[in-house]
Design brief:
Elements: H1 3-26, E1 37-46, E2 49-52, E3 57-65, E4 82-87, E5 93-96, E6 98-101, E7 107-109, E8 114-121, E9 128-134, E10 138-145
Parallel strand pairs: 1-10
Antiparallel strand pairs: 1-2, 1-5, 3-4, 3-8, 4-6, 6-7, 8-9
């Protein structure tokens, strides 16, 4: 192969790679709106201090078009199928930039001028559900979770503990 044919083949390869890259950008999930983002911080109040909650599952889903806003995005499919999911980091921070469908397995950008429902779940805390409007760009949400109480104290005297019946260690099987 001559040097000129290698150069020609290389130019075609570079041109094809560039075309594929551009077509990939045109079909990106956010529809070219990389600034659309729902982000926030999840925290709790412990002994009068605001403490971040890490490893919380955050899920947002579109509910309805926001009647107070004009120019809402068209729904790409039934909104019941769409969800955005994130896990909070050590500082309680999360980001959601796209919605995924659990039916068609497609990914879409956030729907502008819609009302969303947010659900937050993390062991040791009550599940949080709420709604908020989303218009466009970056939107920050701050939510304070309520910790579940785990200690139960029986002061009625009705429940008696049979210390002999409490077993620890290996599981005993019948004789």
């Amino acid at each position: 192969m001559s040097t000129s044919s290698v150069r020609s083949a290389l130019r075609w390869t570079v041109a094809l790679l560039g075309a594929f890259a551009l077509s990939g950008l045109a079909g990106c999930p956010s529809g070219g709106r990389s600034s659309d983002l729902i982000a926030g911080k999840i925290a709790t109040n412990k002994d009068q201090d605001i403490v971040p909650v890490s490893q919380a599952q955050v899920m947002v889903r579109p509910l309805t078009v926001d009647p107070e806003q004009k120019g809402a995005d068209e729904q790409p499919e039934d909104p019941v199928n769409l969800r955005g999911v994130a896990i909070t980091n050590d500082t309680g921070y999360f980001e959601i930039a796209a919605l995924s469908s659990d039916q068609t397995f497609q990914e879409y950008g956030l729907l502008r001028n819609w009302k969303y429902e947010i659900t937050i779940q993390v062991p040791g805390y009550y599940i949080y559900k709420g709604s908020f409007p989303y218009s466009k760009g970056g939107q920050e949400i701050t939510i304070e979770l309520e910790e579940k109480g785990a200690d139960v104290l029986d002061t009625s005297g009705v429940i008696e503990i049979d210390e002999k019946a409490i077993q620890t260690g290996a599981i005993r099987r019948g004789n």
